[in-house]
Amino acid sequence: MSKSEPINIPTVSGVVDIDVDTAYTQIKDMRIHGAGRIARLAASALKNFVDNSKVSDRDQFFKNIMDSGEKLRSARPTAVSLPNGVNIVLASTKKSYNLGDSLDDIKEVTINAAEKFVHDSLDAYNKIGEYGGKRIRNGDTVITICNSEAAISVLKNAHDTGKGIKIVCCETRPLFQGHKTAATLAKHGCDVTIIIDSAVRKFIDKIDRAVCGADAVAVNGALVNKIGTSQLAAIAHEARVKLMAAAETYKFYPDTMFGELTPIEERDATEVCSEEYLKTYPNIKVRNPVFDVTPPENIDVIVTEKGIIPPANASLIIKELIELL
Ligand code: RUB
Question: 290: Cβ below 6 Å to ligand 1?
């Protein structure tokens, strides 16, 4: 993916037919990206695993599907939607296995759980769009970053309800996911402007609201999202522009309640500089962390499918999530 490649606009897809190894590679290589999409792809792959399993021994089946879950969870480290999605599906598998259910019953329960996860994920976008859209006012100019389906849902809703909004998309270096967001919203009929990431402060006095997605929400309400989000949030806070984070509840990170920190993925230097440049100047070091952490004091609200919460209430969502897993 580069700024010169044609734009392949990702869609909000339901259950797809994909095996575990292919899903793992597509997520790892970012052919499918964005926290919600990768979670749904992993759930689809677990369903596909069950559909195609030829194993007749229930213990062996259980071990194999747990190994598949482990593989899928390891494809990318930061978006907690991925382990949460896998764990939500496999929690049903485990329960059924531990109850002593037959292999056929364990399979059926797993398929139902995978389909339910995908269905609930898609349903969450509509709710987040509806709730978040209400907080956008007539004529607002709204800035966004990266390519978040949840944030796009809020923006589309505000547009569709006739608020006459204008949207500014940060292009989101180094992989330019902001160009995808701009293309999706322009196709939807929205008024869209792309700016380079470093132009946010220059334009902030023209901006009324900021909306972004989430890869993870910690127990203290801190938000992990695409690199540049924390900078956008700090600039917005300085200018008294409110930032709304749009996050389905499966993006809240249970382990942060027990002291874990969210690992921040660091990707290849060639995403930042060309191979030729790196060969010419082998003594130049390149760092490419792809997510950052926005402190809760720079976030106005988090919009979930269960309603809008202040960042300080993140622990309530996490407690509910822990009960599911
Ligand atoms: C994507 C990104 C998105 C969140 C939320 O990063 O940071 O803002 O994942 O997206 P990458 P969504 O392109 O590196 O995966 O709302 O679609 O789940």
Answer: yes
